[in-house]
Amino acid sequence: MRLAHGNIYTDKRGRRYRRISLEQRSQLRKDYMSNVPKWRHPLIGYLVAIPATVIVSLCTIYVTKMFGQFFFPSTFSIIVIVVAALFWGAGPAIWSILLNAAVLYYIFILPLSSYDYSNWRDALQLLPFIGSGLVIALITAQRERARFQAMATELELQSYAQELEETNRRLEDANQMKDRFLSIASHELKTPVTTIRGQAQLMLRRISRHKDLEHMDGVATTLERINDQTGRLTTLIDELLDVSSIRTGKAALNRRLCNVTALCREVVEDQRLLTERMVLLDAPPEPVTLKLDVDRFSQVMTNLVSNAIKYSPDDTPVEVSIKPGARCVLFSVRDHGRGIAKDQQERVFETFYRTPDAQTSSKRGLGLGLAITKDIVERHNGRIWCESELKKGSTFYVELPVSPSP
């Protein structure tokens, strides 16, 4: 039993098929016939069956006269049916069965009946021959049906492929529209936010010059909050702009030789001043030089160090180390926070992903920092990964290839 649902029907085995219209079925038949050589057209088979039956009948009569008695007179007739079925299909095969059965009855059965047309029992001798021919025709029909079904399946697959292609095109258009909106919105937001923050900082500087004005204490506190929140907004907008650049492929790198030891030292000092946290740097005394985008790599180290500070206790240090090697330089940033579960260590680099602990914590964010960091590292032909143990902290590693000597 087949259950229909729209243009899809399901058979008793649960297999789903697309319903083919009469026009599609007719077109399939035309396509099937167009792929068949002209000499294998069924009409040719109907015509060929007539002379083939005559030739076979003459051969059967000749063999009978030569040997005096032929116990299997339908042998040559079976060959005609097989050839007709093989080259022209089930229709010509059935037509060959009718022709050869008539000839065999007329040549071999009718003389034995002494022209007694009422003696129909002798005609039953043709039943094995007719049955064998029908089996051949049935097998041929099943084969033709399988070929036709294969073409119908191919048509269905093409239809699905077209639908998937159209769906993918729409999704790609929607994704591009989203990226354009993200880029435009971020640019439009950045200008007023920067202006607000600049005005707040200007007012704070003016107030600091007039400390004798007691009524300005509340205003100063409000302006400080405005400055902090606009700073946070600026950071989020910069991250959104970075994501937009990454997705549109516009985040080009400006590589040049850089002393990464001095760069990491600057990042560490900046984070110490901003957060008043203990950040330790373990670096070799001699300079380590790599060819990279200074601003982007500074962003990488800043993201890693700020994340380590954000998600670790205030009384624990953050440890940054640089280990140069023959082929690559290994950077690591270690914290002593809650740690990250193993099933989440790969996902933390996904865009907009935050671990459950990060979501429930008071630390805010969009889950963009590590995704941007990973993209920058991979654009430098490097790799980044995380090793963590719950309640013991996390360590993020960045490995960059050593630049060849100029």
From TrEMBL:
<keyword id="KW-0547">Nucleotide-binding</keyword>
<dbReference type="InterPro" id="IPR038318">
    <property type="entry name" value="KdpD_sf"/>
</dbReference>
<feature type="transmembrane region" description="Helical">
    <location>
        <begin position="70"/>
        <end position="90"/>
    </location>
</feature>
<feature type="transmembrane region" description="Helical">
    <location>
        <begin position="43"/>
        <end position="64"/>
    </location>
</feature>
<dbReference type="InterPro" id="IPR003594">
    <property type="entry name" value="HATPase_dom"/>
</dbReference>
<protein>
    <recommendedName>
        <fullName>histidine kinase</fullName>
        <ecNumber>2.7.13.3</ecNumber>
    </recommendedName>
</protein>
<dbReference type="InterPro" id="IPR050736">
    <property type="entry name" value="Sensor_HK_Regulatory"/>
</dbReference>
<feature type="domain" description="Histidine kinase">
    <location>
        <begin position="184"/>
        <end position="404"/>
    </location>
</feature>
<dbReference type="InterPro" id="IPR004358">
    <property type="entry name" value="Sig_transdc_His_kin-like_C"/>
</dbReference>
<keyword id="KW-0808">Transferase</keyword>
<keyword id="KW-0472">Membrane</keyword>
<dbReference type="InterPro" id="IPR036890">
    <property type="entry name" value="HATPase_C_sf"/>
</dbReference>
<keyword id="KW-0597">Phosphoprotein</keyword>
<dbReference type="Pfam" id="PF02518">
    <property type="entry name" value="HATPase_c"/>
</dbReference>
<keyword id="KW-0175">Coiled coil</keyword>
<feature type="transmembrane region" description="Helical">
    <location>
        <begin position="97"/>
        <end position="117"/>
    </location>
</feature>
<keyword id="KW-0418">Kinase</keyword>
<keyword id="KW-1133">Transmembrane helix</keyword>
<dbReference type="Pfam" id="PF13493">
    <property type="entry name" value="DUF4118"/>
</dbReference>
<dbReference type="InterPro" id="IPR036097">
    <property type="entry name" value="HisK_dim/P_sf"/>
</dbReference>
<dbReference type="GO" id="GO:0016020">
    <property type="term" value="C:membrane"/>
</dbReference>
<dbReference type="InterPro" id="IPR025201">
    <property type="entry name" value="KdpD_TM"/>
</dbReference>
<dbReference type="InterPro" id="IPR003661">
    <property type="entry name" value="HisK_dim/P_dom"/>
</dbReference>
<keyword id="KW-0902">Two-component regulatory system</keyword>
<dbReference type="InterPro" id="IPR005467">
    <property type="entry name" value="His_kinase_dom"/>
</dbReference>
<dbReference type="Pfam" id="PF00512">
    <property type="entry name" value="HisKA"/>
</dbReference>
<keyword id="KW-0812">Transmembrane</keyword>
<dbReference type="GO" id="GO:0005524">
    <property type="term" value="F:ATP binding"/>
</dbReference>
<feature type="transmembrane region" description="Helical">
    <location>
        <begin position="123"/>
        <end position="141"/>
    </location>
</feature>
<feature type="coiled-coil region">
    <location>
        <begin position="138"/>
        <end position="184"/>
    </location>
</feature>
<keyword id="KW-0067">ATP-binding</keyword>
<dbReference type="GO" id="GO:0000155">
    <property type="term" value="F:phosphorelay sensor kinase activity"/>
</dbReference>
